[in-house]
Amino acid sequence: MSLQYWNEPMECMDRDELRALQSERLKKIVRTVYHNVPYYRTMMQKQGLVPEDIDGVEDLYKLPFTYKQDLRDNYPYGLFAVPLSEIVRIHASSGTTGKPTVVGYTRNDIALWAELMARTMTCGGTTRDSVVQNAYGYGLFTGGLGVHYGTERIGASVIPISGGNTKRQLMLMKDFGTNVLACTPSYALFLAEAIAESDIDRDELKLEYGVFGAEPWTEGLRQEIEEKLRVKAIDIYGLSEVIGPGVASECLCQCGLHIFEDHFIPEIIDPDTGEVLPEGEKGELVFTTITKEGIPVIRYRTRDITSLTYDKCECGRTMARMNKVMGRTDDMLIIRGVNVFPSQIESVLIDFGDTEPHYMLIVDRVNNLDTLEVQVEVNEKLFSDEVKRLEELNASIKHAIQSTLGIGAKITLVEPKTIERSMGKAKRVIDNRKI
Amino acid sequence: MLVKQISVFVENKQGRLVDIIEELYKLEINIGAVSIADTTDFGILRMIVNQPDKAYSGLKEAGYTVSMTEVIAVEMEDIPGGLYDVLQVLRSRQVSIEYLYSFMRRTDSKAIIICRVENPNDAIDALQNAGKRVLTQDEVYSM
Question: Following DSSP, what letter does each residue of A81-101 receive, concatenated?
Fold first, then answer.
């Protein structure tokens, strides 16, 4: 096993020094947001806090949390800490209802992101001699461009093929001599089976490593991918609100994801009380960005459930490691790498004049690809006694969901009261995937 | 001259149709004519019944998605060319037909065409000018 680092001084820094560095950076970012982002200033004032109250990492717990909803309430640019003239890139991910969550990057942020993705790709076996097939989606989603910039920073060759078009993926994989595949784990498995069914012999391929993320996956799925695709499968983690991919990555030891703590301070909290939990306990992961300029986030609630360990890894890295994500504290689904909230579907249906839509999302995995079916109860507002109008309704709901979420869904019109009513919180999702 | 028709949304599931019909039976409603439009996932049941308002509210209370639409009922001769005769009148007025079904009358063996068209007033006017008998609500329900 080659133990390569992209930035050894940082990735293997002594933990006391790291904490001192974090404290300095935290103090600076708190001053910055207090003076440049009215939202954060108001939130701190409500708690009776001034920047001087935060004298280091030990004071982090005093700061209020930031939620996805806060980004939405300040849509699109309200939480940016720099004028728009300093922003060179804008990405967005799906919000909980109609509007996306918007993040802006300064030139320095883009350089930082490339650095972190260079660390990530290096963690996953990429060197300057590698050919990286990047099958993450390019676009507003941060996956594609994140991997792209990191790979270029290393000096490896990136194939910006983006997602989909499996036949072409296989052709280029063989003809271009791909060593590293970057995509979602479910697509990796799909590609493995496509290779098995094609006339390509696995021995003709140079694939060695897979850098997989953007959706939760189990150890079982990892084993299956490693056997079928014959690669070392590395889990990577990130979210656009923090920076995108490049927040944390497994190394070749595959024993937890190293969080790049010189830029992000992780905490594990009790999602109900907000109390910080001790090392090793399972809870909600929270991040504070301490160097990002465009849109710093303070104690951002990821809604991902995991635990942390601070022991030094066999690979020599000293950065904290998070376990694979074990679940969510909200109802967000990840379907084909895309974040989906049931409330987004609800707002689409409300746009169709259905004031109180009854619907059910049925998520499944067929041939290793996620499928989404949306069952919609046909009430009198939606009903027409002409088949063509109902078919038009079906097609327009499908289209609206496609344009809101960016993923295709099968729409099934069902009779009223066929979707189970519950007394408390409505059950909106049946997830049949075994992940 | 328009006739009330009851339409019900039906999922393609075994036993759904009979449930609806049972509901009408319990309400002591007589069905004069019935037709089903089917697609892969669902169907639309369309009916001419003797008490459309009662059927509408009864089915609605039972939880079905129901609508009341107005259709044309026109009498035709039960002979070769009978339907052609009616349709060519509609064509001459450029009336588009959304859907159509038919039933036989017991008393005089005349056939009745039920159709939904885009512009019903034009259609009725054309049919009456051509000497076709367009039935009123009462005439249809009393059959």
Answer: SS-GGGEEEEEEE--SSSSPE
Which CATH number is correct for B71-141, 2.30.30.520, 3.30.2130.10, 3.40.605.10, 3.40.1160.10?
Answer: 3.30.2130.10
Q: What is the mean pLDDT of chain A?
A: 93
A218 to chain B, any CB pair closer than 8 A? The answer is: no
Q: pLDDT, tens digit, for every residue of A190-207?
A: 899 899 999 999 999 999
Domains and CATH numbers, chain A: 8-330 (3.40.50.12780), 334-431 (3.30.300.30)
Measure A384 CA to nearest chain B CA, in Å: 7
Q: Chain B residues with CB inside 8 Å of A416's CB?
A: 63-65
- Enter the pTM of the model: 0.77
User: CA A40 to CA A263: how far, in whole Å?
Assistant: 19
CATH fold match for the domains B3-69 and B71-141:
yes
Q: How confident is the model at residue B106 (pLDDT cuts 50, 70, 90)?
A: confident
Residue B119 CA to residue B95 CA, distance in Å, equals 7
User: Is the per-residue pLDDT at B104 higher than 90?
Assistant: no
CA atoms within 13 A on the CB side of A405: 29
Distant-in-sequence, close-in-space partners of B101: CB < 8 Å, separation ≥ 6:
B33, B35, B46, B113, B114, B115
Contact A378 B10 (CB under 8 A): no
Q: Integer distance in angstroms from the first to the last C-alpha of chain A? A: 29
Using the predicted structure, report yes or no on whether residue A424 has a pLDDT greater than 80. Answer: no
In angstroms, rounded to a whole number, what is the distance separating the alpha carbons of residues A257 and A302? 16
The residue count of chain B comes to 143
CB-CB under 8 Å, A379 with B65: yes
**Nearest CA among A103, A147, A116, A111 for reference residue A297:** A103
Please tell me the CATH code under which domain B3-69 is placed: 3.30.2130.10
- SS3 label, residue A17: helix
Query: Are residues B78 and B58 in contact, defined by beta-carbon separation less than 8 angstroms?
Result: no
Are the C-beta atoms of residues A27 and A55 closer than 8 Å to each other? yes
The whole-angstrom separation of Cα A183 and Cα A269 is 30
Interface contact flag, A391 B10, Cβ < 8 Å: no
- The residue among B7, B9, B17, B99 with the most chain A CBs within 10 A of its CB, best to mutate, is B9
